[in-house]
Predict the 3D structure of the following.
Amino acid sequence: MSKLVVFSFLGGDLNQGFPVVTAQLWCHNQFVPVKLIGSLPPAPELSELYRRWQLLYAAVHQRLGSNQRIKVHSQDITNISVNDFDEVCQQLQANINVWLKFESFQNIDRQLRTLLSHHDEIRVIIETNIVLMHRLPWHLWHFFEDYPKAELALSNHEYESPQLLQKSPTGKVKILAILGNRVGIDIDKDASFLQGLTDAKTTFLIEPTRQTLDEYLWNHDWDILFFAGHSNSLADGDTGEICINQTETLAISQLKNALKAAIRRGLKLAILNSCDGIGLGRNLADLNIPQMIVMREGVPDLIAQEFLKNFLTAFGDSKPFYLAVREARERLQGLENKFPCASWLPVICQNPTTVPTTWQELRGNFGDIKFVGEVSTKDKFATPKLKFWNILLSTLIVAVSTLGLRYLGVFEKIELQTFDQMLRLRPKEDPDPRLIIVEITEKDIQSRQETTKGLKSISDSTLAKLLNKLQKYQARVIGLDIYRDFADPPNRSNLIQLSTEFSKDNVVVVCKSRDSKYDPQGVKPPKDLPVERQGFTDAIQDPDGIVRRQILMMAQEPSSTCTTPYSLSLQLAIRYLSYENIKPKFNEDYVQFGSKVFKRLKPSRSGAYQQGVDLGGNQILVNYRNTDYQRVSLDDVLSDEFDHKSLKDKVVIIGVTANTVNDTWSTLYSTAQQDYQEIPGIFIQAQMVSQVLSAVLDQRPILWVLPYWGDILWICSWSVVGSLIIWRVRSLSDKGCAIFVIVVILYGVCAIALLKQGLWLPFIPSAFAVVASGVVVVLIQRRQEFFTIPQPLVK
C-alpha cells in the first residue's frame, strides 16, 4: 500500500531548534491526513559536523583524483586520510539519529510506525526553506533502514500546482538533453545512455548558446529535461547556475520564462546530473516543476554515469519513480571504496501537489502501467482511463438528478421566465397586415349608454350596424369577441337585422366552454347560430399568470352550452386561408395547413411544463409579435371617419378594450414593461390568429419543443460534454471560466434555436447540469488528489 509522510520544519533552525515539527501521513483511501506534532532541540554540532564533512568530502575526492563536474576548492584542508573521512561520516550519521530520537520527535516516530507497514511504498518529503536542512543526508535516518520501500524527497515550504496544458501522446518519451561545458569531465556516456533508450526521442543540445536553449524550451514539448556538465550552487546553496558552454553560465532565474513555458507544455521531470545541485533544485522548485533529481555535492563522472544508467533501467522497467531512484542510489554503494559517500549524492526534489510520473505516462501508454506514482492500477482512481469513467458516471448521475428535479417542477418557473427573456431579444416586428381590430372603448360605451343588464357591451342595433358596415367594406372574415348571451328587450325590430348579419358565412362569434371545476356555467352563443361559425375563447394562464399557450381545439363537456371544438382564432384562420385555397387537416395530435404542422404540446409533459399544468386539448405555444396591431374605434367605423380600404380582405376582430371590463391578461411583454400593464383579451386573440396566418403564409417559426426523450438526451449531452471539457482544464480558475463560457455558449445556442427555428430547448436544466457536473468534476479531481497525491493543495 502506498503512503506519503510530509515533515514540515517551521519556525527555527539547527542553532535554535524547531519548536514545531509537523508530520502528515496520507493514505490513498483518506480524504484528510493523520497529523502529528512534535519538536526538535537545537543541534549546532550537527551544522558544524556537516560543514566539516563537506570540506573533507571535497578534499578526499580531489586527493583520489576523481573527475568531478565542478572544480573543487579545498584549500582549508590539505592533509586528510580516507579513515578520517569515514569517521566524520559515522559521526554525522550518529548525530542525525540522536537528534531525531529527541523525546518530542519520538512521539511522531512511534505513531508513524504503528500506522506504517514494512511492505508499504512510502514517500517521505522534507519541507523546509533552510538550505542546510536540504543538504543533510536524511537517508541516514534509521527509519529508511526499517522501511526498505521508503525514499526521501525535498520540498520548499511554498508551492503551487503546475499549470499544465494537455498534449497528445506520441508513444515516445521526449527528452531535451543539454550537454554543457565538458572541460575536464566525460559526459559522452550520459549521452550514449539516453541515445540507447528505445522508447524515447532525445534531442541533444551540445554546448548550446543561451538563445538556442531558450528557443528549444519555448517552442517544443518536453517530458524530461536532462543536464550534464559543470554546475554550482551560490550563496551557500540558495541559488544555482549551470555552465551551458565554455563561456556562458546561467542562473535558473535567467531561464525562468522559458522553463515556465516548458513546464506548462508538459515538462514533468528534470535530471540534473551535475555537481552541487541543491541550489538548482530549490530554484526550479520555485517554478513548480513536478519533480527533479539533483546531486547534493560534487559528483564524479563514473558515479553520475552509473546512477543515470541504473535509474533509467529501473524507471523504464515500470518501477515507481521513488523506488527507481532509491534502487539506483543504493547501487552506488558498491563503488564507495573508490568514491566515498557516492550513495549519498542523488536526491529527489518534489512538488507535493503532483503525482510522481511514470515512464509509461510519459510515453502516453497507460495500458500496462503497474503504478501511477505510488498507487496500483487496481485502485479505481489510478489510471486516466478509470478517471474518465469516474467522471462520466458521476456526470450521468448529475444529469439524471437534474432530470428528476425538472420532473418535480423545480425549474418550471425560471424556465418560463428565461423563455420570455429570450423571446424579448427579437427586434420589434411590423404589424400583421392581414388583421385589424375594431375596439369598443370606454368612450364608445359611455357615449351610447349601452349598459345592458349590468354588462358592459353594445346593443343589438349598434352591433348590427357595425357588422353591416364591415360587410360593406368587404372584410374577409369577421370575428366577434363579445359574449352575446343576452338580447335587447323583446319586440324590437333590430333583432331581425342582427340575425340577418349573423347569418353571413364570414361571421364567427364566441362562446365559453363549461368547466365543471372552474366555470360551471360557461357562456352560450347567440341563439340559432350554427356551431360551424362558433369559436371558444377560453384562455389558459401559466402558474405565474402569463398567457403563453393557446388552445386550437378541444372536446367540450357533454353538458356545455358551448359545443364547438374549435377556438375563435382557429376558426378565423381557417376561413381566411380558405380564400388562399389552403385547407386544414385535423388530427388528434396536430392541425396542418399545407406544409405547416402545428403539433400539440403533449398532455403529460412538454418542455418546461412538468407539474401541475393542464395541457389537455390541442394546445400550442403562442409566438407573440413584438408589435401593436392596426385598430379602429367603434365610433370611427360607424361615422365613416377612417380609411375604408383598410378593411378590405382583412380579418376583423371586434372586442371591448374598455378598462371597466374585466378582460385583461398578462403576456411576456406586459411583465417587461416598466409600468406593469395587462392587455385586453382582444389583442391576445389577434396574436393567436396572426401566429397561424404568419406561419402558413410568411414562414414565421412555429414554437415547438423536443419530445421527452429529446429533452433527456439534450440535458445529458450538455452535462457530459461540459464535464469532459472541465475535466481537461487544469487550474481551478480556468475551470470556473470554462463553466461560464459553456453556459454562455449554451444560452446562445438555445436563443438562436428559439428565435430562428422556434425550438424551445431546455436551457435552465442544461445549465444547471453543466454547473453541477463541473463542481462534481472538481470534487472528484480534488478527491483523487487526496488519494493519489496525499498532500495539501497549496501552501
Remarks:
- Residues 744 and 767 are 9 Å apart (CA to CA).
- The chain is about 40% helix and 20% strand.
- Residues 70-76, 366-386, 451-455, 786-795 have pLDDT under 50 and may be disordered.
